[in-house]
Amino acid sequence: MKILKFGGTSVGSVESIKAVLSIVKESYDAGEKPLVVLSAMSGITNLLTKMAEDAAEGKPFAEDLKLMEEKHFEVVKKLIAVKFQNPVLTRLKLLINELEDLLQGVTALKELSNQSKDLIISYGERCSNYLVSKVMEQEIPESEYINASYYIKTDSNFGNAHLNEPLTNQLIQALSQTHADKLLFVTGFIGSNEKGRITTLGRGGSDYTAAIFGSVLNATAIEIWTDVNGMLTADPRIVKKAFSLPLLSYTEAMELSYFGAKVIYPPTMVPAFMKKIPIIIRNTFQPKFSGTVIQFESGKSAYPIKGISSISEVSVINLTGSGMVGKSGFSGRLFTLLAREQINVILITQSSSEHSITFAVNPNDSQKAVELIQNEFELELLANKLSMPVVEGDLSILAIVGENMKRTPGMSGKLFHALGRNGINVRAIAQGSSEFNISVIINKEDLSKALNAVHDAFFAELKKTLHVFNIGTGNIGSTLFSQLNKQHDFLEEQNDIEIKVVGISNSRRMYFNEDGIDLNSWKEELENDGEVADLATFISKMQEMNLPNCVFIDNTASKLPSTYYENIFQSNISIVTCNKIANSGDYSQYRLLHETARKHGVDFFYETNVGAGLPIVRVLKDLMMSGDRLLKIEAILSGTISYIFNNFKGDASFYDVVKKAQELGFTEPDPRDDLGGIDFMRKMLILGRDAGYPIESSDVELGNILPESCLQANSVDEFYAELLKADDYFNNLKREAEEQGKVIRYIGSLENGKVSISLQMVDESHPFYALSGSDNIISFTTERYKERPLVVKGPGAGAEVTAAGVFADLVNVGA
Ligand code: ADP
Ligand code: ASP
Ligand code: MG
Fold it and tell me: Subunit structure, briefly (predicted)?
């Protein structure tokens, strides 16, 4: 025989009850001799609890009662043939009337004992099982309703009663003999004490009922039918990427459920374990799916852990005292005391100094625990051997679980790395003595982020999600979006990276969407659904959203964003930017930002600050990191200047070439902004700093391209007039170069910590001689690349290549 247990959601509606019936029927027809255990219809246990509590406070409950009645009556009307409806409706009405009497009693007494409460909530399971058995009876006449409180005997610990095993065994055995040919529908969750008063087995206890029946009747399997595909790697409501586990050991399932995986009630594992009966968690709404088998062996798995679970609300109590805490007698007294008073200690940690003990309890128990401690240890407190207990609330527990964990080194390192990288502060750590779990206490507000980050870290074969907040939607920003959009599927399939743009702002509007902004229609969404832009608000919203693997992209050219970088790093968010301002300001600022990013374990990537998408910053960094020694950098890092000198040959006049460059859109509106070399200087400065030199912009020797008269001109027109007059000057330069077989180049160099930029004439042996178009070029002379320098050359400007560089940086975040 087999136990089929269906949870509240499986019997929550007409449609789901139909699904239950077909699963039961199939098993019955296949001769599996199922015994069915049902929970109350979904939401009913909570509703009953609320009605009971309301009644005790004299609040009305009639509407809720009506709701409960209607929910059950609807099933009768839709699933039972008209001619059979009456007796069923009558019986249900009777149960509801009884319930109403009880609630009125509570109202009259203004008091709700745990005993009364158990009696009241037992009506949930009693109604649902009676009802479903009657629906089934139409097809299988052997169907019969069983009130399990006559068979499951417990102590009088109302709300969380403990099983009287021998008595229960006898009673269930007897039941199975008298009802051998029946298809039983047994109420989950409820039992009764020796006086026959109804008790309950703890919230979620129907699973336990199923295991108790399964164990007494030596079932071949205990199937727990619910609304998800078995036990998943994490709570699917919080971790969207959670996936179903095919196999778990009893211990693993116990640990996962103990630390919050609600899908199965922890005590359920005990009876099954004793008799080695497999528990199979299955999905009522996807009956073909095999679900999760819980059995003796943990089985092989591709991952070092099985799952991650969490308890979202706990309080922590800290005890310190040099005289007492840590001594074995003390802990013994403490935990015996708490156990005696039914306070469940979820987790205990002890500092290595042994002068303190930290333990976590349900927040409802914390006050009582403190009072108990104060009474029990009154003398020690008076003698200052112990300090007053300190309670901290708003905390959560996250636990990673798996039997393979103890065989795999580095598990806790991985856990703390994932938490640390995301700025999640760990308040306490405990490793289960079994080494099957490591649990940490964190702030409640970080829980969702922590679960997702840890899930990404441990199930790395799965894709990593980057959450992107982008400011600047000009040429580069919008090109980046279209590149991201095009590459989305490829990245996901080939690189297991999912990039979600969750915040976009330009100078006018900003827009957020935690599920990811559709990059086909970001413009419309920003315009229509967005709000008025404000950078400070944008950044604090980004911080409040507290998402894992978060990246801020600055695709603007303004100064303001850089003033927030430090603050952004402090909230453990990486930055990717094409904006040079932050890195080329004061050296102290450069230093501060880099150190802050490093301290918080986040990335600061700005490859596009130098040479757009060309790999320059990264190459320099890799050379330095691999222990090479930089001797010299030579570079042409201005596409505009590059274009001008590459075309200043033959008969062309310098004036014509500059004019042409401007017409082609290569220059700034005032060409002196390019020809003055400031932008080039900034790039050299950044490279110099990245190479380890504390250089300020005032240290850079910036040679002029233009004669003084052109620089002094008051307007662009005047500048061109002066440039025309300077023709001789440039022609002389050109002639001089040509006579020596050389070309003119404006070259930046870094040598011995000094940066200079100057006009030079180079011959064909120089790597910059053959430069064409508007290309950038850089050569690294190092200890390793001494004979032939390492040269990087290519287009160093343009929206497509710059956006591609930002994209590449983004993909590397967290790598
Ligand atoms: P039932 O009503 O069938 O007893 P429960 O609500 O008690 O169902 O448990 C099922 C729910 O548990 C799922 O809907 C899911 O949201 C939640 N849950 C939490 N953690 C996990 C997990 N690790 N695996 C599967 N489900 C989980
Ligand atoms: N109906 C009870 C509850 O909601 C028992 C169960 O569903 O397992 O806790
Ligand atoms: Mg449940």
Answer: Homotetramer.
Q: 207 C-alpha to center of ligand 3: Å? A: 7
Residue 715, both tokens: 């307007």
For range 170-177, the mean pLDDT? 98
Same domain, 61 and 185: yes
- pLDDT greater than 90 at residue 87: yes
Pocket of ligand 2 (CB under 6 A): 7-8, 39-40, 45, 124, 188-189, 203-207
Q: Do 755 and 623 reside in the same domain of the chain?
A: yes
Q: Are residues 484 and 577 in the same domain?
A: yes
483 and 388, same domain (yes or no): no
Distance (Å, rounded) from C-alpha 431 to C-alpha 259?
13
Q: In angstroms, how far is CA 201 from the centroid of its own chain?
A: 34
Model-wide pTM > 0.85: no
Residues 731 and 701 occupy one common structural domain: yes
Segments forming the whole domain that contains residue 574: 464-610
The CATH code of the domain that includes 168 is: 3.40.1160.10
Q: How far is the CA of 211 from the centre of ligand 2 (A)?
A: 14
Which of 594, 608, 611 lies closest to 480, judged by CA?
608
> Cβ(223) to ligand 1 under 6 A?
no
- Listed in sequence order, the residues at least 6 apart from 312 whose beta carbon sits closer than 8 Å to its beta carbon are 260, 396, 444, 447
Q: In what order do the strands lie in the sheet with 356-361?
A: 345-350, 356-361, 307-320, 390-401, 437-443, 426-431
**How far is ligand 2, taken at its centre, from the CA of residue 205, in Å?**
6
Is residue 604 located within the same domain as residue 518? yes
SS3 content of the chain, % helix, strand, coil (to 5): 45, 20, 35
The per-residue pLDDT for 354 is 63
Residue 638: CB within 6 Å of ligand 1?
no
pLDDT band at 680 (very low <50, low <70, confident <90, very high): very high
pLDDT in tens, 355-402: 788 899 999 999 999 999 999 999 989 988 889 999 999 999 999 999
Mutation choice for ligand 1 from 20, 125, 228, 451, CB with most ligand atoms inside 8 A: 228
